Amino acid sequence: LCPCLIYGAYIFLPFDAPLLPTVSARLVYTLRCAAFATFPIVLGMIVSGISRLCSSALEPFGELHREVEIHRTYVSQSIHLFILYFFNMSVLATYLPQELLKLIPLLTGLFAISRLIFWISYAVGRSFRAFGFSMTFLPLLAMLLWNLYGMFILEPENLLS
């Protein structure tokens, strides 16, 4: 489903990436796009704090209720996946040709949407969360494989430069 969503958005959404000739410009563009991917994480932190305040626990450091634990786990996993996403996206931006830089904001949108889908499905039941997690993890895995391919096959002479 992820490749179909990315391809459809790449073809049908009417925007192009700005001209980014240098690596530093590409990294700044990636950093700006990655700021939008933090929206689900910040929203999760807010909801986690509110649910912790509204829980009826008499001891604040005691056993957490299920609704508090869901949000805390979501935020923790989202932060870990965002770190992986950001580093992979930064490396990917250095290897992509100019005409494919439109993928950077599309992959950012997919990350944010898939984290929200994971959060909703995790709140519904733990058995439903595989769809949202796979929508987050499989594009990360594809980016990692493309980055390794770019580093070791396409440009091995520039690996450490």
TrEMBL record:
<feature type="transmembrane region" description="Helical">
    <location>
        <begin position="131"/>
        <end position="154"/>
    </location>
</feature>
<feature type="transmembrane region" description="Helical">
    <location>
        <begin position="103"/>
        <end position="124"/>
    </location>
</feature>
<dbReference type="GO" id="GO:0005765">
    <property type="term" value="C:lysosomal membrane"/>
</dbReference>
<dbReference type="GO" id="GO:0032588">
    <property type="term" value="C:trans-Golgi network membrane"/>
</dbReference>
<keyword id="KW-0472">Membrane</keyword>
<protein>
    <submittedName>
        <fullName>TMM79 protein</fullName>
    </submittedName>
</protein>
<dbReference type="GO" id="GO:0045055">
    <property type="term" value="P:regulated exocytosis"/>
</dbReference>
<feature type="transmembrane region" description="Helical">
    <location>
        <begin position="74"/>
        <end position="97"/>
    </location>
</feature>
<feature type="transmembrane region" description="Helical">
    <location>
        <begin position="29"/>
        <end position="53"/>
    </location>
</feature>
<keyword id="KW-1133">Transmembrane helix</keyword>
<keyword id="KW-0812">Transmembrane</keyword>
